[in-house]
Amino acid sequence: YWDGAETRYPNDLAKAGELLDEAGWVMNDSTGIREKDGQPLDVRWTALHHGEIGEVLKAQLAEVGINIVVEVVAGPVQIDMATNRDFDLMYERQRGTDPVFMDLVWNSKNSGEGGWAWTGFKDDRVDELLDLSQVETDFDARCEALVEVQQIILDNALTLGLFGQPRFWVVDKSVEGFELGPSAWIYYPYMLRINE
Q1: Residue 124: strand, helix, or coil
Q2: Tens digit of pLDDT for each residue in 42-52?
Q3: Beta pairing, strands 39-40 & 33-36
Q4: In terms of CB atoms within 10 Å, which end of the chain has fewer, N or C?
Q5: Beta strands in the chain (DSSP E)
Q6: Which residue did the predictor score with more confidence, 28 or 96?
């Protein structure tokens, strides 16, 4: 984990407004939405579920004049949109105890049909580091490679980290053998025993 990710893009509404002004997106005071060449700054936020997250994002970005249009779509529609790169922002949660998902989401070999690298981003260094991360057995060297990947991803503003989703498991002290699987959200019920 690269802790620089936490401060890479600080919440700075004034700076955001300056950057949007420089890019030609001027605030329309009557609508509260920025415009360029007469077109409003509408950004589609597409998700399979959790439309409420899009509504929170909409409220936050409205502060700088960006209008988020929340779209909740069925799974096949989401996959079709991702495959055809027909989206502005696509909500997809990635989680796990191992950063293998970074390879799935950012390695360009996974950007074709059926892959999860939906942005279509191609960077030879990212691909090289992710390929290395799949075979590197030295923990520190693997971490170093993945930290560099995180830095490149954030330098290119390819993702918008919204939140972490922790999982909590509460187990009575009489239960023995509770063990989580490698992804930390599946447990093995056949290992459980009740100690009376």
Answers
A1: helix
A2: 999 999 888 99
A3: antiparallel
A4: C
A5: 26-28, 33-36, 39-40, 42-47, 67-72, 89-90, 175-176, 193-194
A6: 28
